[in-house]
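Running this now, will post back.
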Amino acid sequence: MSRLQTRFAELKQQNRAALVTFVTGGDPDYATSLAILKGLPGAGADVIELGMPFTDPMADGPAIQLANIRALNNKQTLAKTLQMVREFRAGDASTPLVLMGYFNPIHHYGVDRFIADAQEAGVDGLIVVDLPPEHNADLCVPAQAAGLDFIRLTTPTTDDRRLPTVLNGSSGFVYYVSVAGVTGANAATLEHVEEAHARLRRHTELPVCIGFGIRTPQHAADVARRAEGVVVGSALVEQIAKADSPQQAIDGVLGLCAQLAEGVRGARR
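Update: finished.
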């Protein structure tokens, strides 16, 4: 079993959802970002999404766009992001880690080289937001052949005719984007989340993780009662943006992560 399969199986036995956290690699700088990454599991993150900085993150809202700019201004590269994973894995062999981003940096790095280096570094899966299933051969197929899960995004506009195509070849979990728009947008209603989860369940047995617009422990708990995972990104990234020092950034992200984890872990009690 992969780390993702193992983690979701463990959480199912515990009757609770996963807290899936997103941060951008190299934001605000390599050392601070690495300290945050290493601290997330201890603060309650069950799965980590690590963003691969890119100059044109079109699916992301202002908070994550600015995180990309901060990271790139401090010379973060895809090679450095993979090195962060290696350093993280030196002290953590069990927390699933997924790289999230866009295809352009991977294409520039070289697909075969990227897959080999990601697998060697200890990456568990990929979320590539601008690569539809019609292009599975470009990355999804070779990545899965190397043992990397390929996680698909589904949205409120992905109808029942399109869903089987989107989910074909998906593995790890399904990431449901609960609102039509960019990251950090307003949250969906809980009624919508419940209906969307039920609809996805009719099409897949993979865990469903729901994100976009989740900011508070209470909101995370509400979603955790209805899905297998809760994804939080912009709210954590904003802790870095407003910090006055590297230590304040670390404390802000890990402190909010701990609060979110408490909400998620107590949701079904």
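The chain has a mean pLDDT of 94. More later if anyone needs it.
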